[in-house]
């Protein structure tokens, strides 16, 4: 059986080497690597009858797609008026870097002759971008189930499309549930730290009608939003626990990481900054 610790370390090194461009790194931050998505991809492909060389290329290419998406996500919006040249240059280089990482993904899959995998991941990219538009378009999400489906699509589509392609429903379920939980955890941390969270913003836009027909006070509505968010967090934890039981085998390192995430989200549940 493959040693997951050594394998992940090697894959990280290969991905970072691929993504490294001396000129870009002079002006923008080193691209971050989502290690949980890397771990899930490793688990999925470790259950498949795929040659080691191709398996590594598939994982590396998928993670390069994720890096490209994350890099484009960091591009700031243009401000009003004339911008400083260094600000404009940084934004342009962020876009260029995202495009560069996307090009590396195409190059990698083309090198192993897997055009079908390019199609699978391209469909995932479209689904991710479509759902990002839905999430950030004010008033487009009317209920909690739609909100959660949108977040799942954004966070997990790359792995979900691969799991469907290889007919691995158990890996689809754990990836979808775990990455939803991760995103909700990150949104809660952001809310506690700065009061900013796109998920809380969407929840605030949903209707909260008072029983007597009067308008709900802002403070009362915020309390209801918090309660609803914490319910989503608890439900997501339960879904992860349920999905874990569907896997025939789970490497100890992956199991340990899942348990750490479950513990972290339990600790953060129902905790809020004291107001006033």
Please name the defining characteristics of this protein.
276 residues; mainly alpha
- Label the structural class: mainly alpha
Poorly predicted runs are none
Tell me the span between the first and last alpha carbons: 56 Å
Largest sheet: none
Task: Tell me the β content.
Answer: under 5%
**Beta strand count:** 0
Average pLDDT taken over every residue: 85
Helix content: over 70%
Global outline = globular
Write down the secondary-structure element order: HHHHHHHHHHH
Radius of gyration: 20 Å
- Helices, by number, come to 11
What this model shows, in words?
The protein has 276 residues and is mainly alpha-helical. The protein is built from 11 helices and no strands. The chain has helices at 4-19, 22-25, 35-46, 52-73, 85-111, 115-136, 144-165, 169-194, 198-205, 218-244, 252-268. Helix 1 (4-19) crosses helix 4, helix 6 (115-136) runs antiparallel to helix 7 and helix 9 (198-205) crosses helix 10. It is globular and about 60 Å long. The model has no long low-confidence stretch (mean pLDDT 85).
């Amino acid at each position: 059986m493959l040693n997951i610790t050594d394998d992940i370390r090697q894959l990280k090194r290969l991905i970072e080497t691929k993504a490294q461009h001396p000129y870009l790194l002079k002006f923008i931050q080193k691209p971050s690597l989502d290690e949980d998505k890397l771990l899930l991809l490793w688990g999925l492909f470790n259950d498949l009858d795929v040659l080691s060389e191709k398996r590594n290329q598939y994982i590396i290419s998928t993670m390069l797609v994720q890096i490209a998406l994350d890099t484009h996500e960091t591009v700031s919006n243009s401000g009003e008026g004339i911008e400083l040249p260094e600000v404009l240059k940084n934004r342009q280089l962020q876009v260029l870097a995202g495009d560069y990482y996307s090009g590396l993904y195409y190059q990698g899959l083309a090198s192993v002759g897997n055009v079908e995998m390019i199609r699978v991941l391209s469909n995932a990219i479209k689904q991710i971008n479509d759902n990002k538009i839905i999430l950030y378009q004010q008033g487009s999400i009317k209920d909690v189930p739609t909100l959660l489906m949108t977040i799942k699509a954004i966070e997990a589509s790359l792995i979900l499309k691969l799991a469907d392609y290889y007919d691995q429903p158990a890996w689809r379920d754990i990836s979808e549930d775990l990455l939803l939980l991760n995103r909700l955890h990150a949104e809660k941390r952001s809310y506690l730290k700065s009061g900013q969270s796109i998920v809380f913003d969407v929840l605030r836009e949903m209707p909260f009608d008072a029983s007597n027909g009067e308008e709900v006070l802002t403070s009362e509505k915020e309390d209801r939003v918090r309660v609803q968010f914490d319910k989503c967090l608890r439900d997501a934890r339960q879904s992860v626990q349920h999905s874990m039981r569907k896997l025939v085998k789970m490497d100890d390192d992956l199991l340990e990481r899942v348990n750490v995430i479950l513990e972290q989200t339990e600790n953060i549940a129902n905790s809020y900054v004291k107001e006033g």
